TrEMBL record:
Alphabetized InterPro entries for the sequence: Papain-like_cys_pep_sf, Peptidase_C12_UCH, Peptidase_C12_UCH_sf
Name this polypeptide is given: ubiquitinyl hydrolase 1
Signal peptide region: none
Protein keywords: Hydrolase, Protease, Thiol protease, Ubl conjugation pathway
Gene Ontology CC annotations of this record: cytoplasm
Gene3D superfamilies: Peptidase C12, ubiquitin carboxyl-terminal hydrolase
Gene Ontology MF terms: cysteine-type deubiquitinase activity
Catalytic activities: Thiol-dependent hydrolysis of ester, thioester, amide, peptide and isopeptide bonds formed by the C-terminal Gly of ubiquitin (a 76-residue protein attached to proteins as an intracellular targeting signal)
One GO term (biological process): ubiquitin-dependent protein catabolic process
Length: 239
């Protein structure tokens, strides 16, 4: 059976079911959905179709895999529009907040590693740092040095984080000025990371509030409002 005809059949079956009286159990088990997914797996782009017996390999991933899947998606959309079949596109993406907090964990690990190395190669190095920011002293408000749940930074994330190759190279060296310079660079970068995390958290909270507002049932409030308006419109007795 042609895939487009199969989708049309699913649509007709779902429409027919809606026109009949159904029990609550039947409503929960309503069918009529055809799912198609495009996924990059092991450097190969795969198409997973619920009406196909096996996944279909669309070739090796060349750069942006979405660009490779785009022609298939657009062709399917055009077919559905022509057949007046309803469809929706969903995207599963990595949470940007997780990437930001992971970068923050790596930053903290790097600063701590360089501070430890400075204690060895140049004792008293804290006397030479910028006092306007508390010198970026680990443990002050200007620098995060350990877990911080306000930023979603857990001990588990810190344990998994690894300093960059540049930090590791400096930790094997003895040039205090280079170590101190890179440490100051990481402190500046941390300020930007912390700001990004805060903004993303606030954005997520706003999205959740909007979603909650959309799901709120204002029917009772509206009915109460209409009743009050009707009362106000009634003429006063004896007027």
């Amino acid at each position: 059976m042609d895939m487009l005809n199969a989708d049309l059949l699913l649509k007709n079956e779902a429409t027919a079911k809606k026109s009949k009286r159904k029990t609550a159990d039947e409503d929960e088990n309503e069918g009529g959905f055809h799912f198609i997914a495009f996924m990059p797996i092991n450097d190969q782009l795969w198409k997973l179709d619920g009406l196909e017996r096996q996944p279909m390999c669309l070739g090796s991933v060349q750069g942006d895999w979405l660009s490779q899947a785009k022609p298939d998606i657009e062709a399917r959309m055009a077919q559905y529009e022509e057949g007046h079949i309803e469809f929706a596109i969903l995207s599963l993406v990595r949470d940007p907040l997780l990437e930001m907090v992971t970068a923050l964990a790596e930053n903290v690990k790097g600063i701590n590693a360089l501070s430890t190395r400075l204690d060895i190669v140049k004792p008293g190095w804290k006397d030479f740092i910028d006092s306007s920011t508390n010198g970026g002293i680990v443990g002050t408000d200007s620098v995060i040095s350990s877990l911080n749940l306000a930023y979603g930074l857990t001990q588990e994330m810190l344990n998994k984080a690894e300093p960059s190759h540049a930090v590791m190279d400096l930790c094997h060296g003895d040039i205090a000025s280079d170590i101190l310079g890179h440490r100051e660079h990481l402190i500046t970068a941390q300020a930007g990371l912390r700001m990004s995390v805060k903004e993303e958290v606030q954005s997520n909270q706003l999205d959740e509030e909007r979603a909650a507002a959309r799901t709120c049932d204002y029917g009772a409030r509206m009915q109460n409002f209409v009743r009050k308006m009707r009362v106000k419109k009634q003429p006063l007795k004896g007027a």
